[in-house]
Design brief:
The structure is a homodimer. Helices cover 62% and strands 4% of the residues of chain A. By secondary structure, the first copy, chain A, is mostly helical. Chain A folds into two domains: 63 residues, Winged helix-like DNA-binding domain superfamily/Winged helix DNA-binding domain (Arc Repressor Mutant, subunit A), CATH 1.10.10; 145 residues, Four Helix Bundle (Hemerythrin (Met), subunit A), CATH 1.20.120. In chain A, strands 1-3-2 form a three-stranded antiparallel β-sheet. In chain A, strand 2 and strand 3 form a beta hairpin. Chain A binds a DNA duplex through helix 3.
Chain lengths: 248, 248
DNA sequence: GAGCGCCCTTCTGTATACAGAATCGACGCG
DNA sequence: CGCGTCGATTCTGTATACAGAAGGGCGCTC
């Protein structure tokens, strides 16, 4: 995401705790079902229980965690079973946003045009496969910029909020899929189509291009996703949540 | 809303504070721009600052309040300017939900049929104008049941969450409009059409009926809404918060 | 040997106490 | 007479201390 994201070193301890926990959940360092003990996480992050509690409340509000009866909060489950639900909502929101942005694009379509060009350039660049990480990073940055641009052009705070909340879940579940160079390039072209349609002020085309992209995106994720552990470090190490050996 | 809503007398003080504040904001007892001082509200509600703080965080997450730099949290602004934005999102979400519900209606369309009948009965009942409050209450209860039924049939937790958050804002802004008996009856018939389409398992029809209802609903609110103070007690009394009246 | 009940431990939920920051008012200066 | 600046006051943000409740483990009983 090219967007600034929440800074992990932000001023308030409450924000820090939220940012850390959110990042760890999205990046699957905290797996679904993990109990987020207050004292435990407070010590780990380095804040007191009060701001951590606030962070947990925000997490629950986001849907990244849920409150168990008496047992505190646990990281909410997410699996490929939710893919269709997630994309059903995503389709509703993003087509609406694309339509609204296209309607409002009479002022300043240049940015969308420029972004479309950047997407096409990224799609056609002869990047070797070894730079997959760089390509992916660049692609995500462009995607984030397009999202932000559409959000801004749509100028609908309620829609923007709904999209923001959706994207957290999307990013979490997307880590289950393994993207490759061909998919990234195809995705870049799909994004370019969206950007061009918005720049042209064509709401229906923008919505259609968005649907096309979402269809392919969903198909790719469903095809390449692994059912369980996501990052490239499945077997060993970390155990972030577990107990600390040293007594208090 | 016929839905259980949040009980104001719930167990945890945090929930109590949230329920009270949310109710006061939605019912316009706390007007937009009101500063929610922590000590002030904590004393008013009868809880300590800690749970109240948690409640404020949830309010901010809901979008009912926003956090000002250093100045604490204030009740978020809402005006008729947001009507179009709100209904743009509402259209996206509710048509999607209606479609999903209609697709899943092969199991148990009886409830939707029954609800459609109840709507039609309410629309045709010869209630005198003096019972407007009763009629309105009955209508809202039926609407809430239909919403809940659709949410359940759609079986999409992400969509349900987005709808839940939207409905809070909807209820707040709806208090600006003054409904009358003809509108309530027409609305009941529109709801009946939605329920019947869902029961029939016709996604497109259900979505179309939803769009029809939203169009009329928006038109009515825009036509009858007053720009500023909502409840039937504008001039005297309460002054729940500190002083306002002075624009920023 | 298995089921049940009791006690202990641990955790959440709440309240209070403390430190830093920002704001508002007043005073003095230009 | 207006503006900048300084100070007191109030507020938020954070940490800690305390009480109630739930869970798990153990022993007792059947």
């Amino acid at each position: 995401m090219g967007a600034p994201q929440h800074d992990v070193a932000s001023g308030r301890a409450s924000d820090r705790a939220y940012a850390v926990l959110r990042r760890d959940i999205v990046e699957w360092r905290l797996e679904p079902g993990t109990v987020l003990g207050e004292v435990e996480q407070a010590e780990r992050i380095g804040v007191s229980r009060t701001p951590l509690r606030e962070a947990l409340a925000r997490l629950v509000a986001d849907g990244l965690a849920r409150q168990q009866r008496g047992r505190g909060v646990v990281v909410s489950e997410v699996s490929l079973d939710h893919l269709d639900d997630l994309f059903e909502l995503r389709r509703a929101l993003e087509t609406t946003a694309a339509r609204a942005a296209a309607r409002a694009a009479d002022r300043g379509p240049e940015e969308f045009d420029a972004l479309a060009g950047a997407f096409l350039a990224a799609a056609d660049s002869p990047a070797p496969a070894q730079d997959l990480d760089r390509v992916r990073e660049h692609y995500f940055e462009l995607s984030g910029r397009l999202d932000a641009l559409i959000d801004g052009a749509a100028a609908n705070p309620y829609l923007a909020q709904a999209l923001r909340q959706l994207r957290v879940h999307l990013e979490r579940i997307r880590r289950l899929a393994r993207d490759d160079l061909p998919r990234l390039r195809a995705s870049a072209r799909e994004h370019a189509a969206i950007a061009r349609a918005v720049a042209a002020g064509e709401p229906d085309v923008a919505a259609a291009a968005t649907e096309v992209h979402l269809f392919h995106s969903l198909a790719h994720i469903a095809a390449t996703a692994q059912p369980a552990a996501p990052p490239a470090a499945p077997p060993p190490a970390v155990h972030v949540p577990g107990q600390r050996a040293a007594p208090a």
